[in-house]
Write a structure and sequence with these properties.
Length: 226
């Protein structure tokens, strides 16, 4: 009688990579492959990756906020040094007597003044003179008056610019009240001086030939948190 021997073949199983196999040994008492242990391993690995991603994102947000916070003083410094965006230069400039001598032969420039307050600040603020006439190299003094119309102390802070913007690099302020907090008591008023000059280099710039009027404009805001 012919007997046919049947050979039972075990089901094929995908081989684990050596990397995974090394980490699964010891997850079971006999050291064999265990699907639940593998799943637990990868879940733990995913949690570690998620934690790392959260840390990276958090670090990025903190760094971004730091850059944003530092941008304001850096922007102000740039404007003060270069006259960028119509901001007068307020950085000290070393000059001798000759460079500050008024250019008497130059045409007169009319320096106008403007003052505004934000809607959140219960002050009045305006220049005490409409304009002054100067030549490049001549120093001049102007005053603004601020008045607290409310019944409580208020701290304000002013920003400024020059119009037209291309004249700003030549507008030098020796003394002013901009970017400094000013506190006024109820019903108190104060005179605020601005001491300035137009750089003599203004006369040598052909782009300034058509500029006869320059406006110095201030806007007062309520100081943040005050």
């Amino acid at each position: 009688m012919l007997r046919i021997a049947a050979r039972v073949t075990a089901p094929r199983r995908l081989q684990l990579s050596p990397f995974v196999a090394r980490r699964l040994v010891g997850h079971t008492p006999n050291g064999r492959y265990n699907a639940q242990a593998e799943l637990a391993h990868f879940q733990a690995q995913a949690r570690r990756k998620n934690s790392s991603a959260i840390l990276y994102v958090g670090s990025f947000v903190v760094a971004f906020l730091g850059i944003a916070y530092a941008a304001v003083p850096l922007y102000r410094l740039l404007c003060k040094r270069t006259g960028f965006m119509g901001t007068p230069k307020t950085e000290p400039v070393v000059r001798d007597v000759d460079t500050l001598r008024p250019l008497a032969s130059h045409r007169k420039l009319r320096i106008k003044f403007s003052g505004q307050v934000s809607t959140m600040l219960d002050w009045s603020f305006k220049p005490e003179q409409r304009f002054v006439s100067v030549v490049p190299g001549e120093t001049a003094l102007a005053f603004f008056k601020a008045y607290n119309r409310s019944d409580k102390p208020i701290v304000g802070i002013a920003t400024y610019n020059v119009i037209p913007e291309q004249a700003a690099p030549y507008f030098n302020k020796i003394q002013c009240f901009c970017f400094d907090e000013q506190q006024l008591d109820p019903q108190e008023d104060i005179d605020m001086p601005v001491f300035f000059f137009i750089d003599p280099e203004f006369a040598r710039d052909p782009l300034m030939d058509d500029i006869d009027d320059i406006t110095l404009s201030y806007t007062f805001f309520k100081a943040a948190g005050r």
